[in-house]
Every structure is written in structure tokens, then in C-alpha cells.
Write a structure and sequence with these properties.
The protein has helices at 9-25, 29-35, 40-48, 55-64, 70-81, 97-108, 127-135, 143-156, 158-161, 174-178, 184-199, 249-264, 269-282; strands at residues 112-116, 168-173, 204-208, 222-225, 234-239, 242-246. By secondary structure, it is α/β, with parallel strands linked by helices.
């Protein structure tokens, strides 16, 4: 198969899962490569996501590694066979690869659970709000780079607004709802947009009030994305070095627990809706 100069996060994840199968079976790369009729170097490329793998080879690898989890094998085959070219591919060479990876990950997720502390969730942002956020980047972005970022963020909303919307629960801190990233008009329009998404059934929004007892999760921001199986879940977290894609089982377990803790500190969806509605009256 053709070498990929810049594999997507989804392709890298497939390679990592194949490496896990091989490691769990205690099989050296050279042995598995020989079974698949390829080289150790090519095996490394497959496990790095820079080269694809056919369904036949994947099934042979799984059998050789004594993987009896049929659901997992079928899920990995589905990933390896996927040739989807989504709308995000239109931005290849225009936006950083991570922007495309995020949109692709959201597209394939079975559910989305998000925690946001400092900004309105990206999937719920209005164009003016998103533009204000991106305009704050340093160094400042020229319009030629700012406009596609805003457009890309707006198109990401299709995952929760399309014909087959992905179940989406977001927990947002009151601080994020009150901070004026632009002006009063933008903030009011943003709150009204969130209320509209709630009424349309596109999002279940839970608010953490600033005076809520028992919340110590200021660093809890995350996007938890459900996979076809729990072991194929993915979590996105922003870090100083960029967006991190987390898939190690121990970390996924910890982040599932963290989400449940934050959820307990939030208001239920109905009370949250009323809370946001009162905020619109205060602006």
C-alpha cells in the first residue's frame, strides 16, 4: 500500500491497536511480518499508521496473535476498510492536521461527552464567538487563516445537527458562559444559540455554577468520544503542546471517572436550561 506522509489520528490509532494485539501475544514484529509476507520495516509502518493493512492480513494477524475478541477484530477491520473522505478533507493543506483529526474523530464517535471550563464548547459556538476566540491567538492570524478556522468549526456542528445526530452531553462552567470573548451582543446571541440547540434536542447541556460546592475540576476539560467498543474510546485534551489523543485503557478509565465526578457537580439539564435563560435576562 502507498506510504502516508501524514497519517490521520484514526490511522495511527488502528496501528497502535494492532501493536497491542502483537505485544499481548508476545510476538516479535519480525515473526508477524513473515506471516503477513512483508518486512519488519513495513510492519513498523503499519503499526505507526503510515501504511495501511488489508482485511485479509488484519484477520490473519489477529488469528496468529490468538485474539478471540470477534467484536474487536470486526471493529478494527471496519477502521482499516474505511475509505471515507469527509467534508474535513476539504481543509487538508489549509488547516493544521489536528483540526481534520478532531472532525474525523467526532464523525465516527458513537457518543460525545464534553467538559469545558473556560470557553463555550466548540460544537455550540456561534460564528462571532468562534471568530473572537480565534482572533485572540498569538501571533494574530490573517483573515486568510482566520476565516477557514471559523468555517471549519461551524461545519463540525453537523455531527450533532445532521440526519443521524451523535448523542452529545456537554458540561460547561458558568465562568465560560459569562466571559465576554467579544461584546454583550455576541454573548447574548451565544447564550440564545445554546438554548436553541437545547430546545432542538441537539445537545444536553449541564451547567456548573460558580458557587457550586464540591467542584475541584478546573483542569477537567475534555472531549470523551465513544468508540464502537469501550476499548476503542478516545479522549481529546488540550495541552500547551497541542491537542492530545488519549487511548490507553488506564487513562480512559481515569477520565471516565473524572467525567462522572464533574457530572455530579453540575445541574441537571432542565435546571441548566433555566439557569442559562436567566443569564440572558441579566445581560
Amino acid at each position: 500500500m502507498t506510504m502516508r506522509n501524514q497519517p490521520t489520528a484514526r490511522q495511527v490509532r488502528l496501528g497502535a491497536e494492532l501493536r497491542k494485539l502483537r505485544d499481548a501475544a508476545g510476538k516479535p514484529a519480525k515473526e508477524v511480518a513473515g506471516l503477513l509476507g512483508t518486512t519488519s520495516a513495513h510492519m513498523s509502518q503499519i503499526e505507526a499508521g503510515s501504511s495501511g493493512i488489508s482485511e485479509e492480513r488484519l484477520r490473519r494477524l489477529a488469528a496468529h496473535c490468538a485474539c478471540t475478541d470477534e467484536e474487536l477484530v470486526e471493529a478494527l477491520v471496519a477502521i482499516s476498510s474505511d475509505r471515507t473522505r469527509g467534508w474535513w478533507d476539504e481543509y487538508r493543506g489549509v488547516l493544521p492536521q489536528v483540526n481534520l483529526d478532531v472532525a474525523e474523530a467526532e464523525h465516527h464517535a458513537t457518543f460525545l461527552h464534553e467538559v469545558v471550563i473556560t470557553h463555550v464548547p466548540g460544537l455550540l459556538q456561534t460564528p462571532d464567538y468562534a471568530r473572537a476566540v480565534f482572533s485572540y491567538m498569538r501571533p494574530e492570524l490573517p483573515e486568510s487563516e482566520l476565516a477557514p478556522r471559523v468555517e471549519h468549526r461551524m461545519r463540525r456542528r453537523s455531527v450533532i445537527e445532521g440526519d443521524h445526530p451523535t448523542p452529545y452531553v456537554t458540561i460547561v462552567h458558568e465562568f465560560a458562559l459569562r466571559v465576554r470573548v467579544a461584546d454583550r451582543r455576541t454573548s447574548l446571541a451565544q447564550l440564545r444559540w445554546i438554548l436553541d440547540r437545547i430546545e432542538q434536542g441537539h445537545a444536553a447541556v449541564r451547567v456548573i455554577p460558580t458557587d457550586q460546592d464540591g467542584f475541584a475540576g478546573a483542569d477537567a476539560s475534555m472531549m470523551y468520544m465513544g468508540g464502537p467498543l469501550p476499548q476503542l474510546d478516545t479522549v481529546l485534551r488540550d495541552a500547551p503542546t497541542g491537542t492530545l489523543f488519549i487511548d490507553a485503557e488506564a487513562q480512559l478509565k481515569r477520565l471516565r471517572t473524572l467525567f462522572r465526578k464533574v457530572e455530579k457537580a453540575s445541574l441537571d439539564p432542565t435546571t441548566s436550561r433555566d439557569f442559562i435563560h436567566r443569564m440572558t435576562k441579566e445581560l
